Structure formats: C-alpha cells, structure tokens
Q: What sequence folds into this?
C-alpha cells in the first residue's frame, strides 16, 4: 500500500516538465557517471551559494529576518493556537517506519530517505537521468540542511523548545519553556538529537522543504513536492515540538538550500560567480570565476 502510494506520487510528478532529459538503456553507466560527476563538481558552488547569497541579496535576507522577528514577537499566542487547533486534531496521523528503524530512518524520515534511495535506484535501472539527478540533489540538500540548521544555527541561536502544552505550561523535559524569548542557551554543535537549546530553526522542516524544492525545480512541479513535504511533516506532529517561528524559519531556509543546490547544478546562479572543481595534473583544483 505504501509503495503504491509512492509510485503514484512519482508518476504524477513526472507528467509536467519543459526540460529535455536523457533517457538511456537499462542500467546506463554513462548517464549514471555523468550525473555523479556533475554532482561532485558542483559541491563548491553549492557551498559558495549557501554561504554568500544571504549577503549578496540583503533585501531578501532582511525580509527573512524581519518576518522571523515578527513571528517571534507573537509566538506565544500563535504557537498556543497551533497546539490546540492543529496539533491536537492531527496527533493521531502517523506514517509508519519503512523497512528499517534507525535514528535517521525513523517514522516519517524513513519516507524521505528510502524515497530518495528508491528513486535513484529506479532511475539507474531505467537509465532515466532526471530521476537520478532529483535523488542525488535531494541527498545533497538533506546533508546541507543538517549542517546548516541542526549543527550550526541551533547552536548559534540556543532557543529552548516550547512546553508540550502551553495552555498548562507543562513540558516533558526541564528545558521546555513557556517563554518564546528563552534564547541564548548556547551549546557546542550537536550531531545527535538533543532537546536543550535546539528549537530554532526546525531541522525537519528545513530538510523536508529543501527536498521539496529540489524536486520542484527538477520536475518543474511545485504543488506535489510541497504537498508531500507537508504530509510528511504533520506525521507525528507533536513530536517536533517547535515554536511557530521555528517552523516557518526552517521551511524558508530549506527552500533556500534546495534552490541553491539546483541552481549550482544547472548553472543558473545569479551574479555570474561560479566555483568549480577542475582536474589538474596530480589532482584537482578549485576555480573561481566572477
């Protein structure tokens, strides 16, 4: 049942595209090698775009910060309403774990991980370039989301998570708070899951929306990837435990990351600056053009 749903979703997604993609033979090594090569050589451009674009587009960055700050100011009533009117009705909806239950493939996350793996394997078996590109770029987007939101930004913001019930101000850990202004609980970057000072931004929404943006760009279809990201997010919705501003920030950061990944891969970055890996005698070299 679950696999049939995924196959239906991918079939609908593939119906609309204006870009021409290569379609080779079964297990076409040339296409797979080409996709792998382009994926690797675009990594420096990915990192450059993610690090530099917020500074080269100050209006968009200030708009993001302004929106986030505005939501923080009214986070208590908004998150209270969210807990009462969104989380409670949807609390019974939960996607089962697919195949193997591990820290990175638990519950809804397994649908993302195994969805990408299965999509790549299907694309490789069928010699379909677009499927392979979508899957590997989504994988890169997940990795960048983890480093950006989970490792770096959570440590820098140090915001504590809201109590499970803001209505009664009761939480499951001593770190939970009823104040949306409980920031500055700084800590060393966490590589594992930890409740202390890890509210802002939501890593899961960063990851889900980064993957959604990659698939939206590759398949030129926005409503299906973002619908999928939303359905995955609301699975076990109370378990995420975030302020509303954390979730909005995570979704916007994820969308940004996903777009930078596809932009660098397809060579559509703005501003004319490119960073690439070039083969040289005895190894590789970085090239920066502006």
A:
């Amino acid at each position: 049942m679950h696999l049939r749903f995924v196959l239906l979703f991918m079939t609908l997604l593939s119906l609309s595209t204006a870009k021409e993609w290569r379609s080779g033979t079964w297990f076409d090594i040339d296409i797979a090698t080409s996709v792998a090569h382009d994926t690797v050589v675009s990594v420096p451009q990915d990192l450059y775009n993610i690090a530099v674009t917020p500074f080269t587009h100050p209006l968009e960055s200030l708009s993001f910060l302004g929106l986030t700050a505005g939501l923080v100011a009214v986070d208590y009533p908004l998150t209270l309403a969210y807990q009462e009117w969104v989380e409670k009705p949807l609390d019974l909806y939960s996607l089962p774990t697919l195949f193997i239950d591990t820290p990175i493939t638990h519950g809804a996350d397994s649908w993302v991980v195994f969805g990408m793996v299965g999509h790549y394997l299907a694309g490789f078996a069928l010699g379909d370039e677009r499927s392979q590109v979508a899957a590997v770029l989504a994988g890169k987007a997940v990795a960048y989301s983890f480093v950006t939101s989970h490792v770096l930004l959570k440590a820098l913001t140090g915001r504590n998570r809201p109590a499970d019930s803001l209505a009664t101000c009761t939480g499951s850990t001593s770190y939970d708070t009823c104040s949306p202004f409980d920031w500055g609980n700084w800590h060393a970057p966490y590589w594992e899951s930890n409740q202390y000072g890890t509210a802002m931004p939501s890593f899961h929404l960063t990851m889900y929306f980064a993957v959604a943006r990659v698939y939206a760009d590759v398949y030129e279809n926005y409503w299906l990837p973002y619908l999928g990201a939303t359905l995955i997010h609301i699975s076990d919705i109370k378990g995420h435990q975030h302020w509303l501003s954390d979730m909005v920030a995570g979704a916007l950061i994820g969308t940004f990351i996903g777009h930078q990944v596809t932009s660098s891969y397809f060579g559509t970055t703005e501003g004319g600056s490119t960073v690439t890996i070039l083969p040289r005698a005895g190894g590789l070299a970085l090239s920066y053009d502006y």
Summary: The beta strands are 274-280, 283-289. Residues 27-39+78-263 form one domain.
